[in-house]
Amino acid sequence: MYNNDIRGSSETRKKIIESAISIFSKYGYSGASMEKITEKAGISKGLIFWYFKKKEDLIIEIAKMSLPLDVINDALMKYSGIELLENIGKNYFKKYASNDMRSLFLYTLSSGSVYPIISDNIKDICTKIVREIAQKTCNDNSIKCEIKVRQFLGALLCYIINPSEIEEEIYLKTLVENYEKI
User: Fold this and answer.
1) How far, CA to CA in Å, does 154 sit from each of 48, 64, 126, 181?
2) Residue range 78-101, pLDDT digits in tens
3) Which of 8, 35, 89, 182 has the most CB atoms in a 10 Å sphere around its CB?
4) How many angstroms separate the CA atoms of 69 and 125, rounded?
5) Structure pTM?
6) pLDDT surpasses 70 at 179
7) What is the dihedral of CA 150, 119, 164, 77, to 10 degrees?
């Protein structure tokens, strides 16, 4: 990744990323062209390659952004116990309130086989991070607790894939209560 201070305007880079999010969420990673992204960003095609050497570099950056790694890692640094789950849930819903981000997340989940680095990030969520959440919510790394965490994260994913008529706040509260009962 290029350093913005050396390679140019961070505003231009931000425009590229915002445009890529919009275009990728509409057409998918393989269906979107760099021309569509540059057109939406209002920049030349050459300028996009100033920031990203190839389309794959932009896809990987956007795909990583679409994963809930930031939400989970931020919560892990600040919370433990049930507060950790509540914070993950609230910020998960906030992150995926955007149709663009929700679509990107689903594209990202399905593109792991094409982009191994994305697959590695998904595996990281499903192994290392699940264990960290288990340790901070159950004070152990038991299989039972790991499965509870997977159920919790799976229920959040299910809501994002097919939003329920249940209000987010009630959904999250019930998830946390059920987590405590298991």
Assistant:
1) 36, 19, 10, 17
2) 999 999 999 999 999 999 999 999
3) 89
4) 7
5) 0.86
6) yes
7) 60
The span from the CA of 157 to the CA of 8, in Å, is 37
First and final C-alpha spacing in the chain: 44
What are the residues whose beta carbons fall under 8 Å from the beta carbon of 166, sequence distance 6 or more?
A: 174
| C-alpha to C-alpha distance for 12 and 48, rounded to whole angstroms | 9
Contact 84, 137 (CB under 8 A): yes
Tell me which amino acid residue 68 is: P
Region of 162 on the Ramachandran plot (φ > 0 left; ψ -120 to 50 alpha; else beta): beta
Contact yes or no for 32/67 (Cβ under 8 A): no
Burial 101-113 (b: 16+ CB within 10 A, else e): bbbbbbbbeebbe
